[in-house]
Amino acid sequence: MTSRCDNRIWNPPVGKCLVNVAKNKRAYQGSSRYRDSGADLAVNGLTVENGRCSQTQTTNQWWFVDLGANFTVREIQIYHHDDQNTLLNAEVRVGQEAGSEITQNTLVGRVTDVSSNPVRITLNGNVEGRFVSVDHTGSSVSLILCEVQIFGDLLGDPCDNGCVVPRSLANGRYGRYVRSSINYRTIDPGSCFTDIHLSVLCNPDNSLIGSYYYTCDQTTGKFDYRNTGHREMLSDCGSSCPRPQINPNVLYFVGENNDPIGDRTAFNQAEEIYSKCEDPRYQLHVGLNRRRCQRGTWTPGVWTGSAPRCDISQLHMDITPTTSLTISPSGQFVLVTPIDEVTISCRNRFNSAQLSWDTRIRKNGEDTQGELSDDTSVFRLVIINPTAEDNGIYTCLSSGLSHSINVTFEDNRCSRPDIFPNIIAHVGVGEDTTTIENRQSFMGGETITFRCEDVRYQILDGPIHIQCIDGEWTERAPRCETSWLQVGVDNTILKTVSPDGTYIVYPIVSSIYINCQLRTGGRIGNSATITTNSTTQPSQRAYIAGKLKRLRLRNPTSGNDGTYTCETGSQRHSIKIKFQDIRCPAPENVLNGRWAYLRAYGNTLNEHAYILNEKVTLQCNPGYHASSNQESRCNYQGQWSPPLSSCTAN
Q1: Its GO biological process terms (predicted)?
Q2: Average pLDDT score over residue span 258-280
Q3: Fold of the domain spanning 485-579
């Protein structure tokens, strides 16, 4: 079946007619032959018969257009000059890259026949992209384009014969009138609407602002606002301002909390929205970056100012290193100090050629001491140990072009917290800690861990950890209070205390005791209890004049880890205990020698085991010697360190 597109309607209908999505979009080219031969002339809607053409010089013969969003491109038509050599063998590409990177995009055609005008390139695979380029680099003549028309669909459009329903409606819904019913059938936002009129229905007690219906133009797949021709003008229900127009590359935030605008369609009186470019390194914000909703609640509200846009600058500014770099909702570059060195650079994004000799970077309008690279492709400004005094607007100027970025250096360091008596402080958390020593400043995100000097009878009053956030500690440093009770561990010679105050015990006997006593030396009542993780344990008073309450643990393992609390009357004290059974494997018999081993004092483990810090010595027979070290010790990983040796003949 054959269909003909008459007056924007297929006859017979086969779907919607594609429209030229490149008309009046931003276009760029590598060079311009004349002052009035710029890139925009190729997308102004005027073909070769009645319009001027864009024209490059005989170098840097490339051109591309920014469609402003991702499209599924179906066909490209190029109207060319009478001199056919100005287009012959040119490459046409579609993709996500712009400027000097356009060669990375998908090659969709090479112009080998210019006998027809326009030249048509049909994309059978429906290539997706935002940038469409024509590249004539390598030719000896200029690239002349009188008009480039690009036909495609906005990516994500689910409709073939209808319109996509607008974003969700605050205080209302969309519907389609059903003649046989007094009700409207609800239409979900984002769905495909194939009828003509989409109704706007407000909830009770909410007044309609704007039109009560949209008209779906099924040939273009776009909604008209009450047939006025204004695209995407959304109605509203009972709020002051509708969703503002959002141009390509612009990001909107709502209020001082900088909440993303998301799918919001309605805004209250006096609400403010802020805007920035997606990538301010090469996108230039044009217009006000703050707009305010004005007028009353039940009349259509208006936004102050016009919708800002983000133009693509030919200059690209960057900052390194990026490890401590963020971009605020206002588009400001924020770097966290201290940083030894920061480089602000500038290059020509759309031209691989060198920068001009007069390129410079200014700070707040004053020249800086930057320098051009040897190959003149990049201009660099190096800032040593930047501080708040280096904050400002940095502007790159080159051959009449300019681009600016706003840079702020934030010092988020914290000064040394108060370290009170009987407190031991470590920097870090867990096993990855170091002693605080004499450090006077701390980076943002660093954590300090506190414990008391003697956890057996000192109580930490305050947080175990504090963290440096935005130049301030999350909490005050703790103190150590002295308890009337003392809780300890006997029958083990290996005990350490971790940075967070955990008592780490390495058992070397079959039984150990958790002891509780009064620090005054008095008798402890028989009613005193020892609990583990709030569970009372069967403890008993020791024979030492009733001054000791004792809990016996047989062959303790990690299953006995926990918080042990002694309580008598109104007095109580707790310590955290962790049991780590570290044992090294027995050395195998050594040829031409033997192992000498002296059991550590107190090691009564049975069956015998080699425990932490115990040492073995290699004794070789006459005529033989140790291949490496002669002594090895059992380390915290349960391994011999250094590794065990062997006996080698002299």
Answers
A1: regulation of cellular defense response; regulation of complement activation, lectin pathway
A2: 81
A3: Immunoglobulin-like (2.60.40)
Question: What is the end-to-end Cα distance of the chain in Å, rounded?
Answer: 99
Specify the domain boundaries for CATH 2.10.70.10 within the chain: 241-311, 414-482, 583-649
Instruction: Tell me which residue of 592, 599, 605, 604 sits closest to 646, measured CA to CA.
Output: 592
Q: Residue 481, CB half-sphere, CA atoms under 13 Å: how many? A: 10
Amino acid at 340: D
In whole angstroms, give the CA distance from residue 151 to residue 219: 13
Residue-wise pLDDT tens digits, 204-246: 656 666 677 778 877 667 776 544 443 344 566 655 677 888 8
Residues 443-454 have pLDDT tens digits of: 888 899 999 999
**How far is the C-alpha of 89 from the C-alpha of 209, rounded, in Å?**
55
Q: Which CATH class is domain 315-411?
A: mainly beta
- Give phi and psi for 101, each to the nearest 5: -95, 10
Cα–Cα dist 273/259, whole Å? 9
Q: What is residue 647's DSSP assignment?
A: E
Give the highest mean pLDDT range of 29-43, 128-142, 163-177.
Answer: 128-142
DSSP 8-state symbol, 43: G
583-649 folds as Complement Module; domain 1 (2.10.70)
Residues of each domain in the chain carrying CATH 2.60.40.10: 315-411, 485-579
CB distance 69 to 246 below 8 Å: no
DSSP character string of 225-284:
ETTSS-BT---EES-SEEPPP--TTEEEEETTTTEE-TT--EE-TT-EEEEEES-TTTEE
The token pair at 243 is 């969703």
CATH superfamily of 414-482: Complement Module, domain 1 (2.10.70.10)
Segment 375-387 shows an average pLDDT of 91
CATH topology (fold) of 241-311: Complement Module; domain 1 (2.10.70)
Residue 112 has, within 13 A of its CA and on its CB side, a CA count of 3
Looking at domain 163-237, which CATH architecture does it have? Ribbon (2.10)
482-521 per-position pLDDT tens digit? 999 988 887 665 678 888 888 888 776 677 888 888 888 8
Q: List CB contacts of 312: < 8 A, sequence separation 6 or more.
A: 26, 28, 66, 98, 249, 282, 283, 284, 349
DSSP state of 592: T
Mean pLDDT of 163-191: 69
CATH of 17-154, one of 3.40.50.11030, 2.60.120.260, 1.20.1510.10, 3.40.50.720: 2.60.120.260
Cα separation, 153 vs 69, in Å, equals 10
- Of 295-299, 402-406, 449-453, the one with minimum mean pLDDT is 295-299
- Which amino acid, residue 470? D
Burial of 430-462, coded b for 16+ CB within 10 Å and e otherwise, reads: eeebeebeeeeebebebbbbbbbeebbbbbbee
DSSP string, 434-477: EE-TT--EE-TT-EEEEEES-TTTEEEES-SEEEEETTEESSPP
The Cα–Cα gap between 414 and 417 comes to 8
Give Cα 240 to chain centroid, integer Å.
34
CB neighbour burial string for 179-193, b if at least 16 within 10 angstroms, e if fewer = eeeeeeeebeeeebb
**Structure tokens given for 470:** 């935005």
Model pLDDT, residue 227:
46
Q: CA 478, CA 20: separation in Å to the nearest integer? A: 69
- Specify whether the CB–CB gap between 45 and 77 falls below 8 A: no
Q: Give the pair of three-digit tokens for residue 628.
A: 């490496």
Q: What is the pLDDT of residues 29-49, one digit of tens each?
A: 888 888 778 888 899 888 765
